[in-house]
Specification:
By secondary structure, this protein is an alpha+beta fold. It folds into 2 domains: 207 residues, outer membrane lipoprotein receptor (LolB), chain A (Clam), CATH 2.50.20; 67 residues. The chain is 25% helix and 40% strand. The chain has a 12-stranded mixed β-sheet. The two termini are 13 Å apart.
């Protein structure tokens, strides 16, 4: 993903920042940010991202992306369109792979669609994302605080715009008692929110060693621009099939559940009386074609996933 998931840096970095007097409390700033986020009819801005992710000792990925984000209110939800140009550099066990691609992402209120274009061709996918708008709702900070400790820092200016500064540190456990996976990637994150629009002008993530590992910036912000609804309708290029990820995951789940049944039966039979040799041989001959077919199906699924990589 959810990503996702992206590309070249534009030159817009932060301007010299000046510390301002902070009068608001954390709760007051959260309320203002929520009100602004829920007030838009539409929103558009440019976004850049640079991130470095390290998994274990052998794998790491560097991503650079720049593009545009468009949002349009549809009833109580926002539908989203993002177009990005991406460069990724991955290294695993000493082997390095570089790739450039263009990525279109559309959330139409029900499905999240992606279309990627690279030197390897075009690929389209869709997946139900009913919870995408959970990021923009009245209690969004309440849910955020279930996994993060939030702290309001002194106000600053970013590119001449007054900004609220929020620091987030991952909790050891989420609200349901599970280990917080965010700890694997970040020791803390800092967000600079525009006081006029509520948009995060800049976000920086720091890895477990305290080193900057992610930086995202927003610029050219337009509040309530006229965006046609057709922009949020996904139409794949001619000849490019749309892979239904929900159906694929269900198929894999059903296949895994089916493959577990013979194992249970075999285990149960091992505790019963042994069958005569002639009967066992006949049973094996009867089931042999079924095993070949099963291997053929698994190979087909594996090939499909190889194409998704």
């Amino acid at each position: 993903m959810r990503n996702l998931t992206w590309l070249v840096i534009s030159g817009a970095l932060l301007a010299a920042s000046a510390t301002l007097t902070r009068a608001e409390t954390l709760e007051e700033v959260q309320k203002k940010l929520t009100e602004r986020a829920l007030s838009y009819k539409s929103l558009a801005y440019k976004q850049t991202l640079v991130s470095d992710t390290k998994i274990g000792d052998d794998a790491k990925t560097h991503v650079e992306s720049d593009g545009t984000i468009e949002m349009l209110r549809k009833g109580e939800e926002y539908i989203v369109r993002s177009e990005q140009k991406m460069k990724t550099s991955s290294e695993y066990a000493g082997q390095k792979t570089d790739q450039s691609m263009r990525m279109l992402m559309i959330y139409d209120g029900e499905y999240f669609y992606t279309l990627s274009e690279s030197e390897h061709g075009k690929q389209a996918m869709r997946q139900k994302m009913a919870n995408l708008n959970n990021l923009i709702k009245k209690d969004m900070f309440k849910e955020l605080e279930e996994a993060w400790d939030l702290k309001l820092l002194p106000d600053e200016k970013v590119n001449g715009r007054a900004a609220w500064v929020l620091e987030m540190r991952p909790k050891k456990q989420t609200a349901n008692g599970q280990p917080n996976q965010a700890q694997e990637f970040y020791s803390r994150m800092v967000h600079w929110y525009d006081q006029e629009t509520g948009i995060a002008l800049k976000s920086i993530g720091y890895d477990k060693a305290g080193k900057e590992s992610m930086k995202m910036t927003a610029s050219d912000i337009k509040v309530n621009p006229d965006i046609p609804a057709e922009r949020f309708k996904f139409t794949p290029p001619e000849g490019v099939p749309v892979i239904d990820m929900d159906a694929l995951q269900q198929e894999m789940s059903d296949r895994d559940a089916g493959s577990a049944e013979p194992a249970k039966e075999t285990s149960a039979r091992s505790t019963s009386d042994e069958k005569p040799a002639e009967e066992k041989k006949a049973t094996q001959e009867t089931k042999q074609p079924e095993k070949k077919e099963e291997k053929k199906e698994k190979k087909g699924v594996k090939n499909l996933f190889d194409r998704l990589k």
